[in-house]
From TrEMBL:
InterPro entries: UCP006257 (IPR007384), YqcC-like_dom (IPR023376), YqcC-like_sf (IPR036814). Pfam families: DUF446 (PF04287). This is Uncharacterized protein YqcC (DUF446 family). Coiled coil: none annotated. The lineage of its organism: Bacteria, Pseudomonadati, Pseudomonadota, Gammaproteobacteria, Enterobacterales. Residues 7-103 form the YqcC-like domain. To the N-terminal of E.carotovora exoenzyme regulation regulon ORF1. The C-terminal part is colinear with YqcB. PANTHER family: CYTOPLASMIC PROTEIN, CYTOPLASMIC PROTEIN-RELATED. GO terms for biological process: single-species biofilm formation.
Length: 109
């Protein structure tokens, strides 16, 4: 499995974890929620919303087009802080995020 395939697989795993823990939303947030200048849209989206409506679609767009993937990508540390222990789906979502982050560290050749 090449790097792009592994990233896409983890994005699908992340989506499935969000669905499994009941955090996948059928309707997107209001358009103004995407106008944030804060990291992870802290002021306009909940943590799981950012994964669903920002990270997953943007990463798929990078994979679908002739775009370079980010380097030294890491979102798991934020989610370790943003999601309190016991938060719905925290451990399963964090596990996928840690694996996703690992795909962006070190040598990928």
């Amino acid at each position: 499995m090449n790097h792009h395939q592994a990233v896409r697989r983890h994005l699908h795993m992340l989506e499935q974890q969000l669905r499994d823990c009941g955090q996948w939303q059928a309707e997107p947030p209001h358009a103004s929620a995407f106008e944030s200048s804060q990291p992870f849209f802290l002021d306009t989206l909940q943590p799981y919303e950012w994964l669903q409506w920002v990270l997953i679609p943007r990463m798929h767009a990078l994979l679908d087009g002739p775009h370079a993937l980010p380097e030294n990508f890491a979102v798991a540390p934020y989610y370790e802080q943003a999601l309190a222990p016991g938060h719905t789906g925290r451990e399963s979502v964090l596990a996928v995020l840690v694996e996703l982050d690992a795909l962006f560290s070190g040598d990928k050749s």
